[in-house]
Specification:
There is one protein chain. The protein has 543 residues and is mainly α. The chain folds into 2 domains: 225 residues, Up-down Bundle (Growth Hormone, Chain: A), CATH 1.20.1250; 230 residues, Growth Hormone, Chain: A. Helix 6 runs antiparallel to helix 7, helix 11 packs parallel to helix 16 and helix 13 runs antiparallel to helix 14. The radius of gyration is 24 Å and the shape is globular.
Length: 543
């Protein structure tokens, strides 16, 4: 027996009596760790004075880009550090697309372990980069290697959860992907406390924090990977019958598409466009939410009828705290929307749920300029909260949408390819919002009105999304695998047929209730702490 045989897919097949409710916390353990990618901005300010400690030491004005990258005598600009976000999400999408097919055959446990090694070793390499003041090591470590870990970790549970929960596909994927949205909610406060603990007169505490978080995350991610189990082929919950392909279930197929064929299927590109447009609109707003609130409402946030540019430094500090609370509130709706909307899609249908995202999103985007000019802070905040809930809900609903259209056999790999839409949106959304704002301000538009045209453009993008979603139809039979092709793929995936088609609900059997409770507590307690901290920050908005 080889040393790492326990990672092989055939050794992760669950037997009768395994409790399927152990799989979501295993997925959450990984997603809560890699979700810290959203919270990496907590490191930017400390890293911008890693050499100066108290104040940044600026590089010379005549220094070239490469010299700045390799310099050990001047501090990094935040704009240079910000490239990490681009690397994270471009590598997430591309690695998920490249290795999605391998994941289906290797199984979620091996993919989870590789994800843990990449993400955590990336943090270690970044720590070395901070210690030696080489930003290229951070880009390589967390950006590239860590980004590969993000992609594999993100899609590792998708196919498995959909197969364990054929009766509640949306809810199952919503539970896991909720963790990715919540990772920063836990990781950012933890990183802040660690940096303060490790800070000394000669160190801002970042490299030590990277090493500590790498160790913590490695334990959690490996534990999650070891918790993955895949069902036997043919397993289904007791008492559940697959829906017939009629009426509201006409979009759900019982056949399967091979991942190698999806690039040539129109429905794949239609769903790709729907996700890209929905995410572009949401991610553009998410990245500018703090300055947007401050510039639109200015002194009104603290009861003073003064424009943002006319505020004193102390007043700007006060409204910055309120804007931080606004971001906290948005993060909660982003997380909650992933679970709530994805669960609703089990009843509404995936196509109908996306119509809600797009139509309601259009109405909210075109309403925001009027709400801001009227000074309706409560309605303005509510509109953004709903928008961010649908942004998160779009991520969580799309794996089930793919499973409905393309079947479950290779849905993880197909989802991986679809995530190139996220990589595209990660560039398009922020560029649209940032550059349109800058263009408006440069041409004399007041900051409070500089976002109006942006909102109308984002709304028009959702109109295109509505058209694309309306064109999604069930697939032609020519795209599905034949029985022989499916059997070959199942053999490559090391699947084992169930002794009986209906093994059980997974709600009882050999798995003890205590094991399930402990597994959920391991991920639930950190999430509860993160939510509590976020609510405290959000409370500032209502004082």
């Amino acid at each position: 027996m080889a040393l790492f045989d326990f990672l092989e897919k055939e050794h992760t097949i669950a037997g009768p009596g395994f409790n399927r409710w152990l799989v979501p916390p295993a997925a959450l353990a990984i997603h809560l760790c890699i979700g810290m990618a959203y919270g990496f901005s907590v490191f930017w300010l400390p890293l911008s004075r890693a050499i100066g400690i108290k104040d940044p030491i600026a590089c010379g004005k005549d220094i070239g880009f490469l010299a700045e990258v390799f310099s050990t005598s001047c501090d990094w600009k935040i704009s240079m550090l910000g490239w990490m976000y681009t690397l994270f999400f471009v590598l997430l999408g591309s690695s998920a697309a490249i290795w999605g097919g391998w994941l289906e055959r290797a199984g979620p446990r091996k993919a989870g372990v590789v994800s843990a090694v990449c993400w955590c070793s990336g943090l270690v390499i970044s720590a070395i980069g901070v210690k030696t003041h080489q930003i290229w090591m951070m880009w390589l470590g967390s950006g590239v290697i860590g980004g590969i870990g993000l992609g594999l970790g993100y899609i590792s549970p998708v196919s498995t959860l959909i197969k364990w929960f054929p009766d509640r596909r949306g809810m199952a994927t919503g539970m896991a992907i909720m963790g990715f949205g919540g990772g920063a909610m836990i990781g950012a406060p933890m990183a802040d406390k660690l940096m303060k603990y490790f800070a000394t007169p000669t160190s801002v505490g970042v490299y030590e924090t990277f090493l500590a978080m790498a160790a913590i995350y490695f334990i959690f991610m490996i534990s999650g990977a070891m918790g993955y189990r895949v069902p036997e082929t043919g397993w289904k919950p007791a008492g559940w019958t697959p829906p017939a392909n009629t009426g509201s279930n006409a979009m759900i197929t019982h056949k399967h598409v091979h991942v190698s064929r999806v690039w040539g299927i129109p429905q794949f590109w239609l769903i790709w466009a729907v996700l890209m447009l929905n995410v572009s609109a949401g991610i553009g707003i998410l990245g500018m939410a703090s300055p947007l609130l401050q510039e639109v409402f200015g002194g009104k946030l603290i009861g003073v009828d003064v424009a943002f540019n006319d505020l004193t430094t102390a007043q700007k500090t006060s409204i910055a705290g309120i804007a931080a609370g606004f971001l906290g509130l948005l993060s909660l709706f982003n997380i909650g929307g992933r679970f709530v909307w994805a669960s609703c899609s089990d009843y509404l249908g995936r196509k109908a749920t996306y119509f809600v995202f797009l139509v309601l999103g259009f109405v909210l985007y075109v309403s925001i300029p009027s709400l801001s000019h009227a000074g309706s802070l409560a309605l303005f905040v509510a509109a953004f909260c709903i928008i961010l809930s649908m942004y998160g809900g779009g991520f969580a609903t799309v794996p089930a949408y793919l499973a409905d259209i393309f079947g479950t056999q290779m849905v993880g790999a197909i989802h991986g390819r679809l995530l190139t839409a996220w990589a595209t949106a990660g560039v398009l959304g922020p560029v649209l919002v940032n550059y349109i704002r800058e263009y408006q301000i440069a041409h004399g538009v007041p900051k409070a009105q500089a976002y109006d045209i942006t909102m109308y453009i984002l709304a028009s993008m959702l109109v295109v999304g509505i058209v694309c979603n309306s064109l999604v139809r069930p697939l032609d039979n020519k795209y599905f695998m034949t029985d022989e092709e499916l059997a070959h793929e199942k053999k490559l995936a090391h699947e084992r047929a169930a002794a009986s088609v209906v093994v059980g609900s997974g709600a009882s059997g050999t798995t003890s209730a205590a094991t399930v409770v402990l597994a959920w507590a391991a991920v639930g307690i950190p999430m509860a702490i993160g939510i509590s901290i976020t609510l405290q920050k959000a409370a500032i908005l209502f004082k």
